[in-house]
Amino acid sequence: MGQISSIIILVVLFGLMYFFMIRPQKKQQQKHRETLQTMKKGDQVVTIGGLHGTVDSIDRDQKLVSLDCDGVYLRFNLGAIAKVDRPVPASDEAPAAKPAPTKATTEPAAAPAENEQPTDK
C-alpha cells in the first residue's frame, strides 16, 4: 500500500509540474511562432541581442529576415527575432474631447506665504 501511494504522489507532482510550467511555456512558444508568421515589411522588431530595427524583407523559405537599422541592413535568422511591434496606423479622426466639468467642487489652493523661510532641522 505504501508503494502505491508513493507512485500516486509522484504522478500528481508531475501533473502539477506540467500544468504550471510546461503548458504555459508551450502556449508562449506557439504565440511567438504565430507572431513571426504574421510579421511583414515595415514592422518594428527587437532581436534577441537587443538590436532594434525595421523589417525590410523576409525570406520564409530560408528563414531569414533583413532589418533596416538606421540605414544599415542586417540579415538575421527568424529565430533571432524576440519581439515584433507593429506600427499603429494614424487615424483620420481627432481624439475624443473630454467633457468639461459641470461644477467645481474643490476650493482654490491657498497662495504661499511670501515671507516664510524654509526651516532646516
Automatic annotation (TrEMBL):
**Start and end residues of each stretch annotated as Disordered:** 87-121
Q: Can you supply a Gene Ontology BP term from the record?
A: protein transport
Q: Which family does it belong to?
A: Belongs to the YajC family.
Superkingdom in the source lineage: Bacteria
Q: List the transmembrane segments.
A: 6-23
Q: Give yes or no: UniProt keyword Transcription.
A: no
Give its localization: Cell membrane
Q: How does it sit in the membrane?
A: Single-pass membrane protein
NCBIfam families for this protein: yajC (TIGR00739)
* Keyword Transport included in the entry's annotation: yes
Q: Which GO terms describe its cellular component?
A: plasma membrane
Question: Which residue stretches does the UniProt record annotate as biased composition, category Low complexity?
Answer: 93-114
Q: Which organism is it from?
A: Fructilactobacillus florum 8D
Instruction: State what protein this is by name.
Output: Preprotein translocase subunit YajC
Tell me the keywords, alphabetical order: Cell membrane, Membrane, Protein transport, Translocation, Transmembrane, Transmembrane helix, Transport
Q: Which InterPro entries match?
A: Preprotein_translocase_YajC
